[in-house]
Amino acid sequence: MQAMLLETPKQPLQAVEVPIPTPTVDQVLIRVQMCGICRTDLHIIDGELRDPRLPLIPGHQIVGTIVELGATVTEFQIGDRVGVPWLGYTCNHCRYCLSGRENLCDFAKFTGYQLNGGYAEYTVADARFCFRIPDGYPDLQTAPLLCAGLIGYRSLGMTSDAKHLGLYGFGAAAHIIIQVARHQNRQVYAFTRPGDAQGQQFARDLGAVWAGGSDEFPPTLLDAAIIFAPVGALVPTALKATAKGGVVVCAGIHMSEIPAFAYDILWGERMVRSVANLTRRDGEEFLTLAPQIPVQTQVEAFPLTAANQALEALRHGRIQGAAVLVIDT
C-alpha cells in the first residue's frame, strides 16, 4: 500500500510503499478513505512530542471501511464505516482507567504516535477504540470530528455553563465547537492571529458575537476561555480577559512556554487547566450530538501524496476550517 512515512523528526514525510498490515485478534483492518490533518501531527513531525514510534505513519482522524476482522471482534462487521481517533489503546486496569479517566492511562497508546495512523491506504485499529460514523455525514466532513471535534467537545465541557466564552485560535477545533456552543445558547468571542481579517469574518459567519486579534480585549469579560493555539503567552492574555471565578482551558497537547504573570490576574478564584486526550465516552457523546445540531465542517481536501504541502499550509495558518487527506484506493 501507499503511505506517507515519518522516518526522522524535523524532516518531510516520505512517500513509500509498505505491506498492508495484518490485524491481530482484537483489531480490524480498515481501508482508509479520509484522514484529517491535526496540529498534533505537526508537533510529532517537528519533534515537539517526544519518543514517537519510528518509522511512523501519522494521522489520527481516520474515516474508513472495515475490510477484515480480527478473530475476537464481534462489535463490527466487514463493510462497516468507522472512525479511528487519537486514543488507540488503554490498559483498563490502572487507577485512571478504573476511575473513568482512561484519557490519563499510564499505558495508553495513541494513533499516529505510538501506533501507525491514517496517512496510508490501509490501517489497523483496536476495534474497542473505533467509533461508528453517524448516518448522513460524508467521509470528508466526518474526519475533523474525530480529534478537532472531540478535543473541542471535551474542552467545552470544562467550561461548565459559561455564558460568555472566548476561543483563542480559530482553526479546525474552534470552527466545530463554536457550533456546539451556539447550540447551547452561549455567546462566543473569537480571537485570531492579529490582522487575520478573513479568519475573524469566518468566526462571525459561524455565529461569533465578536471577533478580533489575540492582542485585543473583548467587549465584555469572559466567563471562560479555551486556548486552541499552542502559544503559552495566550494564558496570561486570556486570564486578563476572564472574569472572577472563570476558567482558562488549554486544549492543546503541546504549548510553548507560559511566561510568568502577576498573581492578581489569577486571583479571584480564576483557574487554569489543561485537557488531555479524550475518552471513548467523549466520542460516543459527541458523535451522537453532532448530527442533532447539525455540526457542519468546512474542509480543504488534499491528496495523500500532498501531505507535506497540507502540513505546511496548516503550520502557516493558511487553512480555513480543517485540512483532510483524501486517500484514493
From TrEMBL:
Catalysed transformations (reactions): a secondary alcohol + NAD(+) = a ketone + NADH + H(+); a primary alcohol + NAD(+) = an aldehyde + NADH + H(+)
Transit peptide recorded as keyword: no
Domain Enoyl reductase (ER), residue spans: 10-325
Organism: Thermocoleostomius sinensis A174
Pfam families linked to this entry: ADH_N
CC cofactor: Zn(2+)
Source taxon at top rank: Bacteria
Keywords on record: Metal-binding, Oxidoreductase, Zinc
Gene Ontology cellular-component annotations: cytoplasm
Family, as annotated: Belongs to the zinc-containing alcohol dehydrogenase family.
InterPro entries on file: ADH-like_N (IPR013154), ADH_Zn_typ-2 (IPR014187), ER (IPR020843), GroES-like_sf (IPR011032), NAD(P)-bd_dom_sf (IPR036291)
Gene3D superfamilies recorded: Medium-chain alcohol dehydrogenases, catalytic domain (3.90.180.10), NAD(P)-binding Rossmann-like Domain (3.40.50.720)
Keyword Chaperone appears in the UniProt entry: no
Protein name, entry field: alcohol dehydrogenase
Record GO terms (molecular function): alcohol dehydrogenase (NAD+) activity; metal ion binding
E.C. number(s) listed in UniProt: 1.1.1.1
